[in-house]
Amino acid sequence: MAAEEAQSVLTWEQVSRLDEVLSEVVPVHGRGNFPTLEVRLRDIVARVRSSLALSGVRVKDVRLNGSTASHVLVQDVGWSYKDLDLIFRVDLPHEADFRLVRDVVLGTLLDFLPDGVNKEKITAMTLKEAYVQKLAKVCTEQDRWSLISLSNKHGRNVELKFVDCIRRQFEFSVDSFQIVLDSMLAFYRSDVAMTPARHPAVRGESVYGDFQEALGHLRDKLIATRRPEEIRGGGLLKYCNLLVRDFRPASEEELKALERYMCSRFFIDFPDIGEQQRKVEAYLHSHFVGEDASKYDYLMILRRVVNESTVCLMGHERRQTLHLISLMAFRVLAEQNAIPDASCVTCYYQPAPYVRDSNFSNYYVANRNIPTWLPCN
Length: 377
Prior knowledge:
It is built from twelve helices and 14 strands. It is α+β, with helices and mostly antiparallel strands and 377 residues long.
């Protein structure tokens, strides 16, 4: 596919939304007694890029990625953007380059500390412990990148990803968009007011391939992907997230085959029941902040897909996973007080011994593969 088909220039309306995202003040919450940092994306991107250049690291370009990029392109698509994903395209040939990038980012946080804070004795390690939610590094032949995620109590982490090469950058077409920020950053430096008649030309790209096709999927809330064998976990959790937000498969004919493949890949990548529990709980924690009411519906959709499309597990393994999802759904209802007295439930089956959470100490009744909660008489 021609490179130009994967790209498009943003409209004024889209550029205006991008400006709002880049100019919004986002709090980075500190642990303990460390103060909250007030950060604008445009400022932290400019400072990190400048500091990297001074340290000898060339940044090819900077891109906005993920649900925030989707929000810029199509407003009110059905989900609120959360993590603010930024990609810095750099060269990372050696281990020392990973450390250099990490130290540069942590050093940049000093610039955002409030006036009056004594910065002289604050080390990079101290800043990491205070403000970093997640620190990751992947270094293989096909993937060379690192991630620094800055904490936000409301789920809007500022995620700075430094990418040399990466095998897979999207799961579905609707999350495949990247918006190149270089022209916006240059325009900000000119200190000229942005208007419909005077604004930078901003380029968007779909790493799915065809930009207009992917944009049509986003507008029409359709689910499509390419080369699903490259997706770690098969895209199962994201697929169910799209379903709970009223997206639907672009091709009904391929639906069952896609669901079977996603389930198979999920259980290949996460074969242990403990891994499955941690993966699903982490996904709920990071993708449903402020949307507690949707968690139960999400888990029920996940349970249905696993129940109807899993062909790679033995019977007891499949029942074990369905049991786990049901118990997680019960806990969600209990946390939302949807069950008047969560401690008073008639039981037929005791939770599996692998469940250690005290919230799972109650029992559930499975009826036609849908959990039914029966109050005590």
